[in-house]
Amino acid sequence: MGSYGGHVLPGSFFIFFGVWYVIKYSWSFLRVRTNRNEPSRCFGKIPCHGIVVEGVVKIFFISVGMLVELFYPGAPGGRLHNDAGNFTHPMNWQHATMYFFFGISGLADIVSHTARHVIPAGIDRLFGGLALFVEGYLFFFHLHGRSNIDTRIHILLVLTVWPSALFAFIECLVMSKRENPPHLRDAPYNSAYRTRNMVLAGLSCLLISVIYCYSILCCNLLSIVSTLSTEFPLTQSHESAI
Question: PANTHER family from the xrefs (predicted)?
Fold first, then answer.
């Protein structure tokens, strides 16, 4: 859905996780300040970790997004080429590729906690930054045949996503240095910048969807006016009145 729905879904995704990261990193910072290190719990006495739940929720959202992009009515139906052998629905495939890398990021979130004694620290930030970089790369080449305002908003989206990827990579490098103290190992300032940019990216996606909705509404209104003027011309009504 390289149109209204194709930008509402990722926009809602970014805003949801941006707000979640605000709560998550604020709570983590307060816990470090107050020396509270008790394990997180999901239901009653069942221990879990927030990043595992975050990864599962991310994979769920991503799965829904890919199914909608590839198999929703009017979508390519999972086919790269049409009957003539031409590449079909490139915007849908671009969005599906973006979702795929965020799905890998969700899997990395789960593995970063369940196998934390085996893999290096910050692997979740590494794959999260990779997903953000791929998103910016795809949207940078997502501008062919668009209006000026649509192109500018897509460029603004790229300018918010690529810095988020950079901050995520910096967080990965900081977290990989295990000799750092906990309050530096979590890189709170980089997390704050990345969270802010994710919310801005979500708002940019929603703004693009509003532009699509407005253009579709204007086209429909013009079509209705054109149809009414054809069926009920003003000249005939004026002559009949005379």
Answer: EPIDIDYMAL MEMBRANE PROTEIN E9-RELATED, TRANSMEMBRANE PROTEIN 45B
3-state secondary structure 117-180: CCCCCCHHHHHHHHHHHHHHHHHHCCCCCCCHHHHHHHHHHHHHHHHHHHHHHHHHHHHCCCCC
Residue 145 Ramachandran class (φ > 0 left, ψ -120 to 50 alpha, else beta): left
Question: pTM score, two decimals?
Answer: 0.75
* Each residue's pLDDT tens digit, 11-51: 888 888 888 888 887 777 777 666 655 555 554 444 567 77
CB contact at 8 A, 9 and 65: yes
Pairwise CA distance, residues 174 & 214, whole Å? 44
Question: Phi and psi (nearest 5°) for 89?
Answer: 50, 60
> Which tokens sit at 164?
């988020």
Q: What residues does 47 pair with on adjacent strands?
A: 41
Nearest to 26 by CA among 140, 203, 214, 188: 188
Which two tokens mark 129?
Answer: 């930054």
